[in-house]
Amino acid sequence: MKDSSKVIKEMFMLRSIACLGIVLFNSLDTAITHFNLSESAGHSVTPAIIHMIQMLLLFSTPMFIFISELIISKSYRDGVPPDFLKKRAKFILIPYLAMAFLFSIIDVNIDHAVPTFKLYLYELAKNFLLADFFGYFLLVVFQFYLLHILFARWISRRFSMRSVLICSIGANVLYLAIFNLIDLESLPFGNYYIISFLNKVPAIAWLGYFSIAFYCGRNFEAFIEMLGRQIKWVIAFVILSAAAMLILNQAGIMDRVYSKRFDVLFYTIGIIFIMVHYSKKLTRVPVVLVKVSQYSFGIFLLTRFYMYGVSQLAPAQYSLPNLLLFVVIAFAVAVFGSIAVTHLLNKIRFGPLITGRIGIGIQQQKPEKQIMKASGRRVGKFD
Fold first, then answer.
1. Is the pLDDT assigned to residue 170 strictly greater than 90?
2. pTM, whole model, 2 decimals?
3. Nearest-angstrom CA–CA distance, 294 and 332
């Protein structure tokens, strides 16, 4: 049954910030490659600072994925309609195939001076079958839809919230720890592409995010009330988890800067809780953030293509001003270019199947007070 109350400004804020965080992360990543920044090249301070900033931005992709379940869980608390999966498969799996095809062309041209048809087919197969590109998150989101049905119909009715959260977070951490702490590629059966697929695509790699989003969405009003009481502890938790992430990275215990780290789970959840709490206090969401939220799906899918274009056109002579200018231009071009293309594609029939649909604007929602009154639901305990 669909809940008449909608997540309004909290999700606009979270989605837009997650989206912009992803673009900034990729702008910095592209700058490192473009200017060949490394300690061996004599730029020891600059890449270290960039990596630190990127570490603090690692919440972006998990937050984007988290939001998808929180909204579903709040909207469909006790079940989903019969056409639930069919509608979502169209706008999740088809864009996955489209992006896999398009990005395979870009990838081959980046890695090979003289591309061949065989190389294109090989790259396409990797993208389609092993999600060897940024579009893997679409498969994660679709798995969340399946998990939501399972949790709503069976798990939440048979097990307590506490038990489910402890087991799912524990399983998530242990699963990721295998990839984070063990050099699996050095083992006899270690294959980079298989290991990468298992590290990021199976639902267990994101199960903690899902279960927390599931229960926060089902009990959204109680969740908001709890945050109001515990926000100081949440802020302290985020500071400690961020420090732990940076220490583990600097110590070389987990030196990869990517979101599939078990310590990122705790950091991200804390960041989400803080953002939800303070966005709830806003009387009005800035128009620019609403627009970014509406086009976030397209921005996420198209950002890498613009990064490639900017890196092909920009001079590669390193200096700090050139680096900063590159990041600003890459960021702006990716955001505004993605919005423009998404807008144009949504004007044609099959366009949304490539970059997704444009989201609703906040003005299309009912005022929050009216929603709360209409829903007739009181703030209660988590269940």
1. yes
2. 0.89
3. 17
